[in-house]
Amino acid sequence: MKWSDLSDNWCPVARTLSVVGDRWTMLVLRDCFLGMSRFEQFIESSGMTRHILADRLKRLVEAGVLERVAYTTTPKRYDYVLTEKGKELAPALLSLRDWGKKHLPVRRATSA
Amino acid sequence: MKWSDLSDNWCPVARTLSVVGDRWTMLVLRDCFLGMSRFEQFIESSGMTRHILADRLKRLVEAGVLERVAYTTTPKRYDYVLTEKGKELAPALLSLRDWGKKHLPVRRATSA
DNA sequence: TTGCCATAGTTCCAAAACGACACTCAATAC
DNA sequence: GTATTGAGTGTCGTTTTGGAACTATGGCAA
User: Fold this and answer.
1) What are phi and psi for residue A110, nearest 5 degrees?
2) Which segments constitute the HTH hxlR-type domain (chains A, B) (predicted)?
3) Residue B112 binned pLDDT confidence (cut-offs 50, 70, 90)
């Protein structure tokens, strides 16, 4: 079975994961919750490649988790902001954060 | 930056995702919370390939989220059971479930 | 004692996704 | 003019995935 087939799974966990369950997606959302909204900000903060970020943003907009809001018209540039639907992922992010704080202490500093 | 470099990230969300943030891993944990513990059960329940399941189980055991408990000695066979550390991921799973129930209604039935 | 089944993986290969880096395009800054 | 910034694309080689077949170990049954 392919990952993409999960979107129609009977299980709500699986359906959620079909949206946010791949590499990097949750990190983009974390940055959104931290107040970021622009392409270059996400790149710098998360360390992911531009290629993948473009893909993830597209998916998140399609899923209704983020909204593309133009902030200049020429050239077209957009802020990516959380929708209500997106904001309601906060509890999941917080749970992941708490678990990481408790169970995965930092072993060495990184510059990211 | 590579995905695997996240394990030493300053952000606890990123560190958590380095363990559970890739495709399928959370689904394996969901099945564990539903009471499953064996290879073939995970395969049947999640629809993932054997290959990937073997890899994910190995990583989860290495990460201390699951524990391998022998249930026959010849041949060696194991139950995969949640450790305390693993059980504490429950809030995250529940958050993902709630979000899916609310925001991702099923569009058509599937047999999985 | 040969044959079949079950469990738990492994191996192999093709296809898709990823990672690194260069390049584009529009506008503004110097 | 030339350089810089923001938001991506294009290319290309490397990993990871998906699918199917294969292996290993023992139980059971004819």
Assistant:
1) -130, 160
2) 11-108
3) very low
Cβ of B3 near strand C (distance < 7 A): yes
Nucleotides, chain D, CB distance < 7 Å: 6-11, 16-21, 24-27
Entry field: residues in chain B? 112
Å from the A78 CA to the C26 C1': 14
Nucleic acid strand D within 7 Å of A85 CB: no
The 10s digit of each residue's pLDDT in A22-35 is: 999 999 999 999 99
Domain that holds residue A41: 3-103
B46-94 pLDDT, tens digit per residue, is 999 999 999 999 999 999 999 999 999 888 899 999 999 999 999 999 9
Q: How many domains does chain A have?
A: 1
Check whether residue B1 has its CB closer than 7 Å to nucleic acid strand C. yes
**Is the CB of B96 less than 8 angstroms away from the CB of A17?**
yes
Task: Tell me if B63 is assigned to some domain.
Answer: yes
Q: What CATH number is attached to the domain comprising B13?
A: 1.10.10.10
Residue A32 near residue A80 (C-beta atoms within 8 A):
yes
| A108 vs B8, B47, B93: nearest CB | B8
Residue A55: inside a domain, yes or no? yes
Inspect the interface and report whether the beta carbons of B22 and A19 lie closer than 8 Å: no
Report if residue A82 sits inside a domain: yes
Among A62, A52, A99, which residue's Cα sits nearest to residue B11? A99
End-to-end C-alpha distance for chain A, whole angstroms: 35
Are A37 and A22 spatial neighbours (Cβ–Cβ below 8 Å)?
no
